[in-house]
Amino acid sequence: MSWNWESHGLPFLPGFTFRDVTKSAFHRSQTLKYNNGYALAYRPTVGIGQDPLLSEELLQQEISQLSFETPDITYDSADESIVEDFIPAHVALDKKVLRYYAYFKENVLFSSKEDYCVRPVVIYYYLEDDSMSIIEPRVENSGIPQGKRLKRQRLPKNEYGAHYQWKDLNVGMDLEVYGVKYHITHCDTFTKEFLESEGIVLNDSEPTPVDPYSNRRKNPPASFTKPPRFDPMYQFLTMDRKVLHFFALWDDTDSLFGEMRPVTVQYYLVDDTVEVNEVYKRNSGRFPFPVLMHRQKPPKKVKPTFQTFPSCVLEVSAAEVDEYYSPKDFQLGQAVTLLGRRFLLLDCDAFTKEYYENNHPALEIKPFVVPKKVDLLKDRKKEVPPYNGFGSFEDSLQNCFSLIPEPPKKDVIKMLENGDNVLRYSARLDSQNPGDEGRQFIVSYYLSDDTMSIFENNTRNSGIIGGKFLRKNRIHKPGSTVDNSEFYSPADFAIGATLEVFSHRFVLTDADPYVLKYLESIASQIPLQTLESLRQKLSVGTANNQPADQNGHDEAEPSS
After folding, report:
1. Is 534 helix (H, G, I), strand (E, B) or coil?
2. Which residues have CB under 8 Å from 367's CB, separation 6+?
3. Are 376 and 260 in contact, with CB atoms under 8 Å apart?
4. What is the DSSP letter of 400?
5. 324 Cβ contact list (under 8 Å, min separation 6)
6. Can 235-306+314-359 and 418-543 be said to share one CATH topology?
7. Is 491 exposed, middle or buried (0-12, 13-18, 19+ CB in 10 A)?
8. How far apart are CA 476 and CA 467, in angstroms?
9. Which of 30, 260, 429, 497 could form a disulfide with 376 if both were Cys (CB 3.0 to 4.6 A apart)?
10. Secondary structure of residue 355 in the 3-state scheme
């Protein structure tokens, strides 16, 4: 506060102050500054027009002195009553609503069964701003647009511009709004307590009159003719939104790659239609097809026809069907066939059980429990296509697993355990051709993948170029078929045994010492005759302490 007042002792009132006529600056000093983007407030050092500021102590003394010197302008004692805080209406009356129940009558034209209909409404009065709204409760299947009849607004009371107030509303009165007369019958508890606290006497509550048409629908007059139960309108009115829900399994094991899949079967009682939905599980590897069979009326028995054109491309009409499915055909523990698909019913929901107990008590509704969790494809005869002649039998079998065949999987553990272990044998070619006499071969058996390879020794002046005779491959035994495949194993490699490889016969004559050592480690899997033949052949070598290849590497071929 700054002032230029030199008349001390005079009251600080208009007319007792003198202004300096020579003063020309009236601007105020800056008290708000910005530092690094932040607004900082500073106390002013000078007053208006660069006038000096009084100190805090001097300012308080001046104010106190003025307060003591102010004369008492009242003749009575000072009013010491406590003044209550002012609360505006929009705060005090926020979310406080008066609720009245009323009805209005609407004339019905062109009807021989009713002259008028009674439509109940709820009137809301908002104390915050004296606005009102009218809501009509919705009635299911009434055929009348219901809901909000009048949006929240101030309703005109008369032609002079006045509006309805909460004082104008009472029970038993008529409220005319935009040409419609609403008769108020009663109100809720809060409305009654609020009006009584304001001194308004409420009238007695009145019952809402009954709608004649609704009363006749609930209590139809006695008649000698009963409406037929097969009437579609009767079925619609009594069975609408009532659905029988079953949990079932789709038995698709008759197809090539079929299996049992969980599904849900819905039977709609309103029109006897059936819908089948497949239960989709995440990360199941299948594309979601939720609707397996769209909602339709599947036939149970079809009349036999003698037509030459295929009937599967045409829709089955009602004239061609002898019988449709009914709720009696759906029983737990039994299979139902819908459009050529078999569905085993396992369980149902609570509404379905209650429906069968009330309408079909003879049918036993008990959940069907699968005996045990087994492989559903175990007992089904697997149809394997024949060998196509390309690659091995495993390569041809990959065509059955995917559209784009992939290389067959290998036994990784077996490859790691026997990665470099090879059983090598010496053999000669058993042939009737005199030119093949004296040809020597090395037969190698690889334990990592049970394959064989044959290498021919290069004999001088024989006229035959030696080298690789057969690359690594699994060799079938003679008489082996595609359905029952048998391959050569170490148990078949006895000294003196004959191996038939692609129409060539090889007679085993010798083996590495590592072969005997390995086969003795798995003696329970090798025939005794094979072990004895190797012991007799390799006994001379072991007696002379000849070095034996301990790991069976195929680095150098044994000499013949």
Report:
1. helix
2. 332, 346, 347
3. yes
4. G
5. 272, 297, 298, 299, 300
6. yes
7. middle
8. 23
9. 260
10. helix
Q: Quick one: tokens of 218?
A: 């609930």
What class is the 235-306+314-359 domain? mainly beta
Domain boundaries defined on the chain: 1-71, 90-214, 235-306+314-359, 418-543
Q: Which residues contact 130 (CB under 8 A, 6 or more apart)?
A: 154, 163, 164, 165, 166
Give the global pTM. Answer: 0.35
Residue type, 452: M
The two three-digit tokens of residue 479, written as one number:
């008489």
Residue indicated by tokens 């209650």? 354
Architecture of the structural domain at 90-214 = Roll (2.30)
Per-residue model confidence as pLDDT tens for the chain (560 residues): 445 555 556 677 777 766 677 778 888 888 888 888 788 877 777 777 777 776 665 666 666 665 555 555 555 555 556 667 788 888 888 889 999 999 999 999 888 888 899 999 999 999 999 999 999 999 888 888 999 999 999 999 988 889 999 999 999 999 999 999 999 999 999 999 999 999 999 999 999 999 888 888 888 776 666 655 566 688 888 888 999 999 999 888 777 677 788 899 999 999 999 999 988 877 777 777 778 889 999 998 888 765 555 555 566 777 888 889 999 999 998 889 998 888 999 999 999 999 999 999 888 888 887 665 444 334 444 456 666 667 677 777 777 777 787 887 777 788 888 878 899 999 988 888 887 888 889 999 998 888 899 998 877 666 677 788 888 888 888 887 766 778 888 888 989 888 888 888 899 999 999 988 889 888 888 888 888 888 888 875 444 444 444 444 443 344 43
Q: Which residues contact 277 (CB under 8 A, 6 or more apart)?
A: 263, 264, 266, 290, 291, 292
